[in-house]
Amino acid sequence: MAQVKLVDVEKRYGSFVAVANQSLTIEDGEILVLLGPSGCGKTTTMRMIAGLEDITEGDIFIGEERINDKPPKDRDIAMVFQNYGLYPHMTVNDNIAYPLKLRGQSKEQRNARVREIAEKVELGALLHRRPSELSGGQRQRVALARAIVRTPSIFLMDEPLSNLDAKLRVTMRAELKHLHHELGVTTVYVTHDQMEAMTLASRIAVMRDGHIVQLDTPKNIYSNPVDLFVAGFIGSPSMNLIEGTITKGRFEAPGVSIKVEAADRGDVVLGIRPENLELATGKGAINGPIYALELTGDATLITIREGASLICARGPADFEAAMNSPCSLKPTSDAKLHLFDKTSGQRI
What we know:
This protein is of the alpha+beta class. It has helices at residues 42-50, 92-102, 107-120, 136-148, 166-183, 194-200, 218-223, 228-233; strands at 4-13, 16-26, 31-35, 57-62, 65-66, 77-80, 154-158, 186-191, 203-208, 211-216, 240-247, 250-253, 256-259, 265-272, 277-279, 286-295, 300-306, 309-315, 326-331, 338-341.
């Protein structure tokens, strides 16, 4: 196992800055998720750790060793890609065993280790097949098995679940979490899917425009986003963000009046998550016509429209109402309210 440290790392392509002077320590044995929208620099950061991208400035260390000039094959890193990267002419057994073959292990040693790993990822009965005979989930498990078969110091995973359907992604998230618990290998995981980040990560680095905006545990990032970008990016459905003012201890916006503990000021944004809103009897803190109802099984997402704002609440599963009928919401008794400066986007 190993700690990974990035010190003032920057990546430029001509005048374009893909990763801007970032420092980051990935602790021994943790899963650190690089999360953000396309083009934020998360994959570039991972590829620099792997040695697949040159570093413009700064240093990367694995343990105590500076690895800037080390080729990828000498970094003791295993990568799992979005497109699996399997050899189509090889069987599952040979695909998994290939890293061991490169290390010069005997066929008997390779086969014994492959059988051991195949059982961990439920591929024992499929070792004779070729990738074309497997489902997407099975191919991804082969890619995982090939990565873990030689027990590297670091796993690098670049959106490994993005090609799978929704149900299979949930299953594979659980498998990845369990495998990490068993193996304890330091893992850097890149994704734009905040649900993957929340469920898998020890810590999340939320990235935007080449910068790490917030680095913390999933719980703290969800509960205490540092700015409007993080607040809107984390959570499904996302946090309600309502523009307004604070007057005499109340946040005021069209159709909205909520008590807050803050000094009077204009140009603020109130953030409140859907699960922190509930239906109100009579006039509530938030009032407007129903814009949409979405049954999710265990709840109904109730969206009301007031002016330019769409405000979503998580209501009871049996809630029914006509479109455009009036609806009132109020914060729950334990609701957490978030206030942000509209101009800077920073948390107040």
